[in-house]
Protein: Ammonium transporter AmtB-like domain-containing protein
Amino acid sequence: MSNALPNEFDYNYYDYPSYSRFEYNSSLSSYDTSWPSLARVVFVILLRIGFVLIHVGSVPVNNVNLILLQNIVDFCWVTIIYVLIGVVIAYTGDARGIIGQGYWIGDASVDKDEVIIGWAAVVIAAAICTCGIVGRTHTVGYLVIGFLLAGLVQPFLIHWIWTPKGWMRANVLHEKNVHFLDYSGSAIVHLVGGLSGLIGCMILGRRILRLDSIDDASIAVGSSATVFAGYLMVFIGLQSLCMPNVHIRKLECKSKARYNVYINNLLAASSCSLLVVAFQFLVPGEEFNHWTVMRCVQATIAGLVIISAGTDIYSPSAAMGLASSGSVIFYLIARQVFGSALEDYCNIVAIHLVCAVLGSFIVPFFNIGNGDDVISILLNFCWQFICLIVVIVFVGIVISLAFVILQLTGLLRNRSEYLNHLRASLAEGRSPQRSTILERLFRIDRNPIYLQPSSTVDDQVTSGSRIGRY
Structure:
C-alpha cells in the first residue's frame, strides 16, 4: 500500500480522528488552528466531572472526599504519564508498525494537536476503569493502574490502530488489504476501560453480596438527579472522540466525512434509550426505581458506544438500527450483572465492555466499498476479529497481573474496603452453600447473605498512618 497522503476527497484515508487529514501549508500559518484541541480538552474535563457525579451518586462509599481525591489524583497522574511516556510510544514516527520513533513531547516535530487526541483517549479510559474500583482501591493501586494504561497499554494500541502505519490499522491478509476499524475509540477507549474495571471488580471480590438488595431507602435523596446529570455530561464529553484532527482555514473545514458523526451519535443514543425504557414497561416484574431509571439513562451512552467503531461510515438509518438491536444485548447483560454479586454500580460491563465488543465485531460488514467482493469482506471481518482478540488478551494479561501483584503486596484495598471485604468473607464462610468465584460473582442468587457496607471501625484492624488508610 502507498503511504503517500491522499487528496482531500479520498475518504478511505479518513477512518480515524487521530491523525491529520491534511498536510500543513505555509498559507495556514497565520490562522489559529488550536481551538479544536481546546474544545477537546473542555469536553474531556466535562466528562471527568460527569464521572465524579456518577461515582458520588451511585457508589455507597462513606467518605465522598476519598472519591474526589482519587479522581483528581487519577486525572493528573494519567496526564503526566501519558505526556512523558505514552506519547513517545504512540506517535511521532513509526518502527515496523509497532511503536513510535521515540520523540519526546518537547521535540518540534511532535504534533501537539495529535497529542491531545491521545490524551483524551487515555483520560476517558481511566475514568471508565475508575468506575469499577472507585472508593475501594488504595491510592497506590490507582497510580499503578493509571501508569500501565496511560504509559503502556493504550499508547501501543493508539499506535497500532490510530496511526497510518500501525500494524492493526492496515495490513495484508491473503494478498488482500485489510483494516481494523475503530473511529472513535470502541477498542482503544471503551473496551480497555470496561475490561480493566471488570478485572478490578473481580479481583477485589465482594463487599456486599448483591446489588439489587439495596432498597430505595438506602439511596440518598438527590442521588438520581446527580447521576442523571453525570451521564449527560459523559455523553457530551464522549463527543471529543469524534472530533477529527483537521486544519482550519478561516473557520471553514476543507472536507466533510460522508456522514455527520454527531447526528449518528444522537440517533443511536436516543434509539437505544427509548427501547430500554420500553423494555422496562413490557418486562414483567421490572419496577421503576433508582437502578432501573439509571439503566435507561445509561442506554444513551451504550448506544453511542455500539456505533463508536464506525461512526463515520454508518448512515443515520444504520446507526439507529444498530443501536436498537444492541439495546437488547445491553438490557439483558445489565439485568444479569445487576442480579449478580459483581459490584458494578456504574454498569461499565454492559455499557462499555459488551457494547464495545459488539460494535467492533459488526462494523466490517458496513465498511463495503465499490468493487469489494465476498472474499474481501470476509477477510476484513477475520482481521477485525483477530485484532479484537489481541486487544482483549493484551489488556487482560497486563491489567490482571497488575491487580494480582497489588493484591499480594497488600496495596490493593484501602482500609474501609478491607473491613467490608473481611466481613463479606466471614459471612460467606458461615454460609452452608459454597460455590466457585465465578458463580458467586455472576450467578443470580435469590437468597443471598446480605451485607451493607458500614462505617464502623473494626478494632482488630489498625493503621498508624494516613497513607495506610487511603
